Amino acid sequence: MRYFAVFVLVLLASVPYTLGPGVEQSLVTLFSLVAMATWWNLLAGFAGLTSFGQQAYLGVGAYGLYVLALAGVDPFAAIPLAAALAGVVALPVSVAVLRLSGGQFAVATWVLAEIFRLAVTLSPGGDTGVSLPGISGYMPLLRQALVYWCALGLAAGSVLAVWLLARGRYGLAARAVSADPDAAAASGVRVARIRRVAYCLAAAGAGAVGALLFTHTLYVQPGSIFNVQYSVLMMFMVLTGGLGTVEGPVAGALIFFVLQQALSAHGPWYLVLLGAVGVAVTLFAPRGLWGHLGRPLFPIAHLRET
Amino acid sequence: MLELDRISKRFGRVTVAEELSLSVRHGDAVGVVGPNGAGKTSLFGMISGDLAPDAGEVRFDGRRVTALDASVRCRLGIGRTYQVPRPFTGLSVFENVLVAAQQGAGTRGRASYALAAEVLAGTGLADLAGRPAGRLGLLQRKRLELARALATRPRLLLLDEVAGGLTDPEVAELVALITAARARDGLAVIWIEHVVRALTATVDRLICLAGGRVVGDGRPLEVLATPAVREVFLGTEASADALTEVERDA
């Protein structure tokens, strides 16, 4: 399994040399979907916090990258900094939103993302969107390849990071919190801390994706990066793939990606079909497609030592 | 080790604790009886930290814990079970106990696995370790509640009707488990129970609660014999039966 994963990664890393810019471009989209879904799943699947507001941190990541690049930092080097910035911004925000749970938490995160969007829109020159500074020094072909490798690294790194978290001491406590927060506290789990860590890490992950998308599109606008549709997408991918599994978000991202490629020519009908798939999976396969069909490639269960 | 100092708690018009004071010493086994709505489970909530009293103070080992989070109190040594079992569904039986061993008892790595395995063996759940906790029968759920509480390595164990809904032989099994845990770990127990027989067989002190007040406190049979307690108990047919049963046993 490990060798297979490394083999796939090497194969994917060679795409800029083999399959060319067209495939490269679509795979950047796929990889950012994988990363997005994986971090949303840490929050919703493992810590039990369903957020509709992760676009807030996509935006913080993108605009953070803008500010850093404006200050002269190389855009690619600035991606991790932008991610860290999103995580730091999430810390004080978590104090407010984590007083809520369930549906109230979901709505609060959405409202918060809207506030972020308005704040950026109302700032000087904010409503028209911005181009990424400091990127023109790169030759287009090299730039695209770098974006591709960053996206691949981000997707693989996100899956690995969430897997390591989920299978360890933290993940077990988070799963307990997600099942029953009161009983978890009564068993000694510091519920607030578990949720805060998940919230800030998921924000940093979203921030990295936001920054990456900016290097890919070279242009960002508050209306698009702060769009709630991103959170709906994350939810669709994680629910269809398998909530609370490491493989689920990857499977969900693949499903969405394939549906999108195959159906986007049919206009709005594609969205109707996507909705139907979401409803069908929720009704007939509530553990997601991976949850029902797949064997864990990245196991998180703790087994008694014999 | 545990002191409740004039704690009061109301939900609207319902008083669940009225200037209630109580102290439990190291190694005590205290039974709590009382009619429905007497404030028994709320009392546990205020000791374990699920519920904040409106007034008064809770002290554990001389330390004020009234404002502390339930998780902190658990780490200090207060373990509890819930009346209606609350297993972490989605986790296996082993993982349910492991999380308590890691977070409540503060063990890590192999030590946490060893503690969880030991507790599972002690509570007769070893064969079910790999089963999802959501797929257990009632007796097993009750055992798991007990196992999870024991895995936090408590010094004070709060048992909320662990025998409720079980058959007589099952009750006897659980009572044996609790007696064994007390003998081994020397822990103090406060035990709420409707099955008065299970209680009187185990505890050496009985408290009767009614309307958020202590109406009886002392040796089990003496408490059951006092007029105030009789009055509370004779209110319901079933409790009166339970009382006669206990007296017959004695």
UniProtKB/TrEMBL annotation, chain B:
PROSITE patterns to which the protein is assigned, alphabetical: ABC_TRANSPORTER_2
GO molecular function list: ATP binding; ATP hydrolysis activity; L-isoleucine transmembrane transporter activity; L-phenylalanine transmembrane transporter activity; L-valine transmembrane transporter activity
Protein name: ABC transporter ATP-binding protein
Record key words, sorted: ATP-binding, Nucleotide-binding, Transport
Occurrences of domain ABC transporter (ranges): 2-236
Species in which this protein is naturally found: Acrocarpospora phusangensis
InterPro entries given in the database record: AAA+_ATPase, ABC_AA/LPS_Transport, ABC_transporter-like_ATP-bd, P-loop_NTPase
One cellular component (GO) term of this entry: plasma membrane
Lineage: Bacteria, Bacillati, Actinomycetota, Actinomycetes, Streptosporangiales
Listed GO biological process terms: D-alanine transmembrane transport; L-alanine transport; L-isoleucine import across plasma membrane; L-valine import across plasma membrane
